[in-house]
């Protein structure tokens, strides 16, 4: 089932998230629905707050990006209660977009070498060092679990320049090809 994606300005995107436990109701169905929603919106990652749930859950499938980012080949996984440790390295600037900020992309600086610890969909512990676009994608999605969006990494000057676009998102004045839920009040 395709779920609505919550748009920039909605309070759920700023809330603290709770850890997921093995007894979380209908977790396998939720994971399937999140993948379906992500694919329908043509995304490569989706965090639970983006579908209105304040829990530590992310789905990622970056295999489609493997030609330009070899580290993404075959990478489809579920992250439950992920923890990111940023490792040494210089920051790299790349454009990022987000399903919660449709029709926008901005340059974001991130260190692209991390260590990730998480539980998979069977609650088996995992740990892996990641680099490149894969590490960037993971950091972007885990930011959502911490009440952040990529726009929080953009300079104040740049945010000022695009403030009307951000206001339009918050007011529900935009179009996209997937179901959304905005914070805009209906008059």
Written account of the structure:
Helix content is 22%, strand content 27%. It is an alpha+beta fold and 187 residues long. The chain has one domain (5-181): Peptide deformylase (Peptide Deformylase). The strands form three sheets. Strands 2-3-4-7-8 form a five-stranded antiparallel β-sheet. Strands 1-9 form a two-stranded parallel sheet. A hairpin with a 7-residue loop joins β5 (91-97) and β6 (105-111). It is globular and about 45 Å long. It starts with a strand and ends in a 6-residue tail after the last strand.
What secondary-structure arrangement, pairings included, does this model have?
Blueprint: E1 5-6, H1 27-40, E2 45-47, E3 57-61, E4 76-86, E5 91-97, E6 105-111, E7 113-119, E8 125-131, H2 132-145, H3 156-161, H4 163-170, E9 180-181
Parallel strand pairs: 1-9
Antiparallel strand pairs: 2-3, 3-4, 4-7, 5-6, 7-8
The top level CATH class name: Alpha Beta
Sequence stretches where pLDDT stays below 50 over 5 or more residues:
none
Task: Provide the CATH architecture.
Answer: Alpha-Beta Complex
Query: What characterizes the major β-sheet?
Result: 5 strands, antiparallel
**Radius of gyration, in angstroms, nearest whole number:** 16 Å
Average pLDDT, rounded to a whole number, is 96
Task: Summarize this entry quickly.
The protein has helices at 27-40, 132-145, 156-161, 163-170; strands at 5-6, 45-47, 57-61, 76-86, 91-97, 105-111, 113-119, 125-131, 180-181. It is an alpha+beta fold and 187 residues long.
List keywords for this structure.
alpha+beta, 22% helix, two-stranded parallel ribbon, 4 helices, globular, 27% strand, five-stranded antiparallel β-sheet, 187 residues, Peptide Deformylase
């Amino acid at each position: 089932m395709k779920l609505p994606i919550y748009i920039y300005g909605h309070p759920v995107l700023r809330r603290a998230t709770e850890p997921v436990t093995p007894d979380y109701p209908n977790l396998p169905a939720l994971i399937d629905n999140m993948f379906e929603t992500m694919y329908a919106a043509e995304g490569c990652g989706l965090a639970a707050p983006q579908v209105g749930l304040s829990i530590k859950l992310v789905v990622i499938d970056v295999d489609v990006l493997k030609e330009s980012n070899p580290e993404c080949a075959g990478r489809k996984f579920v992250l439950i209660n992920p923890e990111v440790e940023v490792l040494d390295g210089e920051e790299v600037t790349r454009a990022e977009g987000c399903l919660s900020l449709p029709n926008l992309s901005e340059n974001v600086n991130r260190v692209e070498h991390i260590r990730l610890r998480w539980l998979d969909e069977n609650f088996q512990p995992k740990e892996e060092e990641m680099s490149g676009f894969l590490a960037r994608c993971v950091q972007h999605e885990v930011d959502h679990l911490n009440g952040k969006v990529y726009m929080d990494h953009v300079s104040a000057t740049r945010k000022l320049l695009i403030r009307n676009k951000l206001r339009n998102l918050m007011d529900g004045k935009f179009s996209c090809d997937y179901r959304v839920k905005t914070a805009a009040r209906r008059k």
